[in-house]
Structures are given as C-alpha cells and as structure tokens.
Design a protein that fits this description.
By secondary structure, the chain is of the alpha/beta class. The protein is 44% helix and 17% strand. The structure holds NADP nicotinamide-adenine-dinucleotide phosphate (NAP).
C-alpha cells in the first residue's frame, strides 16, 4: 500500500463539523468515478481507492473538490488491512473495483482471467467487509457492485454471472452480520466506462447501438446515473440486504 494525500483523507479528525468522508474503492475510473463525482456534488467528502496511483492522481486533478486518494490492491489482505489502518472514520464504503480480463465460453476458460474477476469483485468485497466495519460511523453502509450478467446472463459471461450472483448472497448475509451497518448491491446494466474501450470501436458501437434500441429507457447509462443510485443507497436508512438494478430495463430487454 502506498498512501497519497492521506492528510486530506483524515479530515474528520481535523474538522468539528461535517461527516467523515465516503470511500469509493474503484473510484479512479468508470462507475466508481461517477459515484465519487455524484457524492462530491451532494456535499460529501470523498476518498477514492485503486491500485494505480497515476490513475488516482489523474482522476483527482480532473474531478477536483474535496477528494483524496489512497492506493491499495483489494485482492491483497495486507494492503486492505493497511488501507483501513491508515484511514480515519468513514461515512460509507462503496466498492466498484473490478478487474475483468475477458469474457468467453467456459470451454475456453483461462483460469488466470477467471481468478482475476473472482478475486477483484468477490474476494475484494469479502476483505473490505472484514476490515472496514470498525471505521464506519453510525448510519453508515457498504455498497457492493454486481451487474446485469447475473440478472440477465448471456453466453460467454458465466464467470461474471457467477461472481455477481455470489455478491448478492454475500450482501444478504452481511446485512444481517454487520447490522446496523447497511449492506446493499448496486447492479448496473451496460454503462459507458473505460471497460468498453478494450473492445474494437466498431464492435463496441454496434453492440451499444443495438442495446439502445432494445432498452426501454432508450439510452445507455452514464457513470453519473449509477452515482445517483449509489447516493440513494447511502442515504436510504431503511434499505439493506437488497439489490438496486440500474439498467434501463435491460433485465427485460
Ligand atoms: N461498465 C459496464 O457496462 C458494467 C456493466 C455491469 C456491471 N458493471 C460492474 O460495475 C463495476 C465497475 O465497472 P467499470 O466499468 O466502472 O470498471 P472500470 O472502468 O474498469 O473501473 C474499475 C476500477 O477498479 C479499480 N480496480 C480494479 N481492480 C482493483 C483492485 N484489485 N484493487 C483496487 N482497485 C481495483 C481500477 O483501478 P486500478 O486499475 O488502478 O486498480 C478501476 O479504477 C464492476 O464491478 C463491473 O463488473 C459494469
């Protein structure tokens, strides 16, 4: 773990007013960045976490506001323990981190790619659930990120479907075990993020255009759309152990 700008994270100890920061793990890009931006716009202070200090610094410069950064790999328990040892109190923890190398038929499964998806989304969430709770203040919550691959699976997406489904089980059990900390799953449909940039542009544009035609909402989500839903989950004091599907109707399409 290497910490950057930690002093800015630990604002709660220096400030007599205002809540402690919200932590967004995966906040350096994509949906996590949209969550961080939405939280800041709603008046929260935010710390974003990811592996790449460079990515975090770039996001911090571009987003601005009361944003701090901490680098950690959430698949590594030593890193996770150190992350929370260096943190002050937190209002909420949201995890959008994922390292999904590829999709494909299970007959061609590359175990390394499968492990990367399982470790970043599921093991990472378990490690956060193990180490974050003592720092989460009264009224706080943990939000995990699943995804449409569970609600509406497609051939080639079995590993991600399995991981997203496992996160729902994890959420429901943790909502009981960690109470009164609330635990929920945010489940996005297709959302415009850097994840899609790995695909050849023509293929990506054709897939997205086809999806827009099918979706009842008539558009693909932006990361800020997911941010609004994440903000709701942090503030909805009567919502725990549940899944919020934010997919424009993709589960029906
Ligand atoms: N985009 C979609 O269409 C879509 C659809 C359904 C579900 N989802 C789900 O939504 C979540 C976010 O997706 P996204 O598209 O926003 O992904 P993304 O743009 O690739 O962002 C993932 C972030 O996670 C961080 N990360 C990855 N592995 C990490 C680790 N081991 N420790 C700490 N940070 C790590 C990455 O930063 P570093 O590389 O610097 O660590 C990156 O900032 C994922 O769970 C994804 O499965 C996305």
């Amino acid at each position: 773990l290497s910490a950057t700008r930690y002093k800015e994270v630990n604002m709660a100890e220096r400030s007599t007013d205002g809540a402690p920061p919200v932590m967004v793990i995966g906040g350096g890009s994509g949906i996590g960045r949209g969550v961080a931006e939405t939280m800041l716009a709603a008046g929260e202070r935010v710390v974003i976490v990811g592996r790449s200090e460079e990515r975090l610094a770039k996001a911090s410069t571009e987003i601005g506001g009361e944003l701090a950064t901490l680098a950690a790999d959430i698949t590594d328990e030593t890193d996770v323990r150190a992350l929370f040892e260096r943190c002050g109190p937190l209002s909420h923890v949201l995890i959008t981190a994922a390292d999904i190398a590829s999709y494909g038929p299970v007959s061609e499964l590359d175990l390394k790619d499968a492990s990367s998806a399982i470790d970043s989304k599921l093991l990472g969430a378990i490690l956060i659930a193990k180490h974050a709770p003592p720092l989460i203040q009264e009224g706080g919550s943990i939000t995990l990120t699943g995804g449409i691959a569970f609600e509406r699976p497609a051939p080639g997406g079995s590993i991600v479907a399995a991981v997203n489904g496992a996160l729902v089980g994890l959420c429901r059990a943790l909502a009981l075990e960690l109470a009164p900390i609330r635990v929920n799953v945010l489940s996005p449909g297709w959302t415009t993020t850097p994840f899609w940039e790995r695909m050849p542009p023509e293929q990506r544009d054709a897939m997205i255009s086809d999806m827009v035609d099918r979706l009842p909402a008539g558009q693909i989500a932006s990361p800020r759309d997911l941010g609004e839903a994440a903000l709701f989950l942090t503030r909805a004091r009567h919502v725990t152990g549940t899944v919020l599907e934010v997919n424009g109707g993709q589960h029906l399409a």
